[in-house]
Amino acid sequence: MSGLTVRHRRTTALDGVDLDFGTGVHGLLGPNGAGKTSLIRVLATVARPTGGRVELFGGDLTAPRTLRDARRRLGYLPQDFGYYPGFTVREFVAYVAWLKEMPADTTPAAVERAVARVGLADRIDAKIRTLSGGMVRRVGIAQAVVNAPQLLLLDEPTAGLDPEQRVEFRSLLRELGEEATVIVSTHLVEDVAAACTDVTLIERGRVAYRGTPQSLAALGRDGDESDGNTTERGYTAALRAHRTHLTGGGQA
Ligand SMILES: Nc1ncnc2c1ncn2[C@@H]1O[C@H](COP(=O)(O)OP(=O)(O)OP(=O)(O)O)[C@@H](O)[C@H]1O
Q: Per UniProt, which keywords does this protein have (predicted)?
């Protein structure tokens, strides 16, 4: 994407963002309201940019053919994902597969595979309304991966997962990132450190930092240990540097 701009009335959510993403797990970090969701929504083709250019799978997103092709090839877990509580897990994931125009003959096996990947095989025929919040979140991840997407967009996927599930989920992320482009927004710096191949820090609609989790951690290596781990301190240092830069140096 180049010059990507998203405005909501008078708020500028993204302000001329240039980024490209290849295979791997890309973490999007940033404070509340930084613009992470706006970025993911554009890539998921559910929001139209106000300005700039976005290419997905080699085509410009404004072309109807690219748009339709992209929708089949991507997986998306929104922050608040809508589902039908009366559907079973199997029915819901199969419904999403149908929306993505997956071939009917391969759908049942793909649904079972996706549900097994998130550790819900034993609840596949349970109605979603009977599941816990963390399990519903995992159904959200299953529906996002059912079509083995080449681009997987996850907005706060670890919210509501317990620590054990988070650890399992990170290993699923690493596995998915071996073959696909995975973009994951999170507030949890530890998710980034554990699962991401690179990290992009968004602040006030701009890219404040991009690098590996290791290089982000290096920024926080010299800090006070009572101020969190090195990645958290690196995050704070990168944000601070960006804010200083925005205000013309030294006055922030
Ligand atoms: N539909 C909307 N209408 C008006 N303003 C919006 C809308 N969606 C987002 N915004 C504003 O755009 C900015 C960026 O929001 P966005 O949701 O992209 O941030 P975020 O980084 O995902 O935040 P969070 O971590 O809180 O989810 C914020 O100032 C937000 O208030």
A: ATP-binding, Nucleotide-binding, Transport
